[in-house]
Amino acid sequence: MGSATTIDHHPGKSTVIENMTAELQSIMDLVKTIEQRSADLAEQISIHAQRHSFLTYAWQESRKVADEISFSAEQRVDSVTARAKSIVAPQQDQITYLNQEIRRLEHEVSAREADNPAYTIPADLKITPLTIQVDNVIDLTAYLHLPPHRQETGITTTTSEDAAGISQPVHPIPAEAAAQLNGIASAVLEQEPVLQPENGHGATADDNRMAGNQSGITDESRIESPVYRGDAGAVETMHFDTEINIYHNHSGPGWHRPKHRHHWKLQLQVEIPEHNVDVVYIQISAAITATLARFDDILLNRVFPFDIIEPSQENVAAYFFNCLEDTLVLKELILKELVLVEDDIPQMTINSRSTDIEEMLKGEDLIQDMRTSLLDKSKNGKVAADRPAKKKFGFLKRG
Q: N or C: which end of the chain has fewer CB within 10 A?
């Protein structure tokens, strides 16, 4: 058998051992480095996993909040749409009915025009011109019904003289046309009340004077237009009902009531002054709805002024009265009464402005300050009041 050479008998024994030791140490250092890197990677993986978990949770919560906001917005839109339809629907039905009536009347007028040919008026027909100056239907009607003019035909005819002084007869108006003119004048006169002229002379005095002396009417004379003297107060009172949902929580000495809901009906009485009788019902109703819209279906404790004062039933009703009165004053209307009704039971009646609320909010209510400024300027003639011809500025004035 051959002999085996062992390391002990190797000529470079010490060198080989040193090289192998160094190589082993290098391998061990590499293993430690790899283990350290593995630990670092495991830590980073753990951090990324936690971050991913957090982001996933945040995303889920964001989706939940977004869904709640979207659902709330959809409900709000549906509520506003339903309220708008409830306001517009009756008016739309009325508009449709009026359009049908207009078409029916136009058809009747067209049929009558087709059945009744136009009157042929002679070319040489002359009508006596009025001997007085009139500029309105009332004065003309009054003049035509004075005794000298109350004839069967309703209109008098005269003769005209040519340059040679020869009088020629004038053809009368056809009896049917004259009867129609006389009927129209009579209808207008019957619809108007018998009123005294501004100069204090009654119709009897004018009749007697005209009957006694027809020559007393000259080209310079003029019939006084009657002045309609109604009551100094309002000529009409309008009633409005509006509903509002509110939430609030309020407290007092020794007690506290958490958040709860009320469904109130506000019954309003609005006086229309004598000079503002052309106001439209739907415009007032829209102004009232717009004034209360910012309080509808929200928590009052979070909106002005009830984030400053206690949102008790008395304070809420008093502030509503003040706001509505300010809105209506800009339209030259008068809020006479506000009745707060809940569950068909009147809770309170307010018929005057609350100065206590104004004192509590002095310097705080910017909207009220704007309204007061506009009202003062309107009274001083610097800003025109919200008359029907200026409706496009009404919502700007309400702030």
A: N
